[in-house]
Design goal:
The chain has four helices and two strands; from the N terminus they run ααβαβα. The chain is mainly alpha-helical. α2 crosses α3.
Length: about 140
């Protein structure tokens, strides 16, 4: 857990998401999300208890999980992505978010925001660049 020096706290390390997704065990993914949420909430409560402004890694809102589909490993950063399979990505994300935010509670454990859910694949850049070139902001 990166807390940018706000507090000194260690957190559980989990395997890369591609390995976890390959297990196809969504109960495990949900339980991992719950464990991460407990630690994130503890980091926040610790920072507040020490009268510090909760910094990165100590807040209650997180950019997670990363939803980018792996298209080609040569593009790099594939270790951040779940898989090539959109269905598996959806199951993984739903299970993770349910564990991370909690279900059936009055309040969320912490907030999850799926990262790169839309418009992150490199094969559409040419289309986006073409659409962008016709904006009124072009010089």
């Amino acid at each position: 857990m990166r807390t940018t020096g706000t507090i000194d706290m260690h957190a559980t390390l989990f395997p890369l998401v591609t390995g976890l997704a390959a297990s196809n065990n969504m109960t495990l993914i949900r339980m991992m999300g719950q464990a991460m949420a407990v630690e994130a909430r503890a980091a926040h409560n610790t920072a507040v208890g020490q009268e510090k402004i909760p910094g990165k890694g100590c807040g209650l809102s997180y950019w997670s999980p990363t939803m980018n589909i792996i298209r080609d490993p040569r593009w790099g950063r594939g270790q951040e992505s779940i898989s090539e399979d959109p269905a598996l990505n959806g199951l993984y994300a739903a299970s993770f978010v349910q564990g991370f935010q909690g279900t059936g509670n009055k309040y969320l454990y912490v907030g999850a925001t799926c990262k790169h859910l839309w418009a992150y694949s490199l094969e559409v850049w040419a289309v986006l660049r073409s659409a962008r070139s016709h904006t009124p902001f072009e010089r």
